[in-house]
Amino acid sequence: MDVFRVLRGHYLLLFGVAVILHLLLAYYAPDPNGYVYDFYSKAIILFFENGQLPEPGACFVCYHPPLLTLIGGGIFHVVEWLGGDRHAQLFSVALVLNSLSLVFSIYTFAIYRHYRKDESLDFILWALLLFLPVAFVSAFSIESDMLGSTLIVISTYYFIRFLNEENYSDLVLSALFIALAAATKYTGAIIAVYFGGVLLARYLRHFEIQQLKQGLVYAGVAILVGSYPYINNIKETGHPIIGNVAWDTAKSYPELYDFTSFSIWDVVRVFEDSRAIELNSFKAFNTEVLTSHYGQLWTDFTIFSRAKRHGQWHQAGFYTGKYMPSWLLWTLLIAGLVPVIAGFSGFFALAISREATLLLGMFVLSIAVYIAWFIGHYEWMLKTKYHLYLIPLWLIAINKAASCVPASIARAMLAPAVIFSAIYCFFFAVF
C-alpha cells in the first residue's frame, strides 16, 4: 500500500486542479469575523491570550478535546512572531486545515485501492473524491471535523497495513494517529476503542501471546497520548464526553435538545424560544428532512431550508455566508443520486459478501453512536461532515455496485456527479 502512488500522471494533474480550487477558496475567504472561523476560534484565542487551555464552560466548544486548540495556539504564536495580526492568525489556522483535506483525499484513496476489485473506475472515483462538496465546504473553516477525520483515515490506513503485514511500526503509527484523533474529536475515541476490540478479537480467536503484546502496545500508545481530555471531563463533570454547551445548562434545559418529528415528510424543528437562540447562537429554523438531509451528503448544509436571497440564489454554506445559483444546487442534487444509490447498493453487497469488514464495522458503530447522540440533541447535529472518515467505504461500495455493469457505462453514469461537483466547488470558492 503505497499511499502516495496516486500522485502520478493524470491523477497528479487532477490533484493539481484540486489544489488550485483550494487556493481560490482561501483567497476568496469571507470576512474573518464571519462564521467561517466557527466557534473553535474562540477557544484558540482564549488559549493564546491566557497561556492555558480554557475552562470547560468558557466557550461553546471548550468541552471539546483540545488538539485543535493547541495547534491553533501554536500557529497564532508563529504568526505573531512574524508580525501578523489577528486576521492573519485566523487565516493561517484555516489555511492549514484547508490543506488537510488534500491529505485526507490521498489517504482515503489509498484505503479505497486496497479493497477495490475493479481498477477501471479509479480515475473517476478519484475525481469524485477530490471534488466532493461536503469535504470541500468543510475544508476552509476553523473546526475540528476535517482534522479529526484526516487523523482517523491515516490511522485506519496504517491499521489495515498492520493487519496485512504484522509490522509493529504500522501498529504504533495507527495507535498514535487514532490517539491524536481522540484528542481532536470524540469520534476518534470511539474508533480507537473499535480498533482495540478488533485486536482483542484476534487474540481471543487464536490465543497467541504475540497478539496480546500487539494489543498492549496499541492500548499503551493510544491511552498515553489521547486520554487526557476524557480524564479531565470526568474530573470536571463526572462524564467523559460532553456536548457543546455548559454541562449545567444542558441539564437545566433538556427540552432544548429534542426533535418534534422523525417522519421523512415532516418538518424537524428546533425549539423557537429565546433560550434556544441564546444557547446555540443560531436562529431557530425549520428544515425539510428529505431535501436537506440528502443535500448534506453533498454540501452538508440545509441548503433549501431558508428563503431565497439575491434572486434565484440559495445559501450554500451556513458557516460561510456564501450563496449558490438555484439551478446548480438542484442539478447537483439530481446528479448525486447515482453515486448515492450506488453507494447504498454496494454497501449491502459488501455486507453479504463479507468484504471490507473492518470498514463495515466502523460504519455500523459510527452510525449507531451518531443516532444515540443526536436523539435528544439539536437538529443541526445532523451533518455529514462528522463522518467524513467513512468516505473510503463509500468509494469501495460504489466500486462494488458499479462492477455489475460495463465500466464505460458506470463511468458515464458517474460523470455528471463529478462534473457538477467540480463546478460547485469552483462556484463555492470564488463567489
Q: Explain this structure to me?
A:
The chain has 431 residues and is mostly helical. It has one domain. It has helices spanning 9-27, 40-50, 67-81, 86-115, 122-130, 133-139, 145-165, 168-182, 186-206, 209-226, 228-237, 247-252, 274-280, 289-295, 326-335, 337-353, 357-374, 391-402, 407-430, and strands spanning 267-269, 286-288, 313-317, 322-325. The strands form two sheets. A two-stranded antiparallel ribbon has the order 1-2. Strand 3 (313-317) and strand 4 (322-325) form a beta hairpin. Helix 4 (86-115) packs antiparallel against helix 6 (133-139) and helix 16 packs across helix 18. The longest helix has 30 residues, at 86-115.
Brief digest:
The chain is mainly alpha-helical and 431 residues long.
Strand order of the largest sheet: 1-2
What is the count of DSSP helices, taking H or I runs of 4+ residues? 19
Radius of gyration based on Cα positions? 21 Å
Secondary structural class: mainly alpha
In N-to-C order, the SSE pattern is HHHHHHHHHHHHEHEHEEHHHHH
Q: What's the multimeric state?
A: single chain
Instruction: State the domain count.
Output: 1
Largest sheet: 2 strands, antiparallel
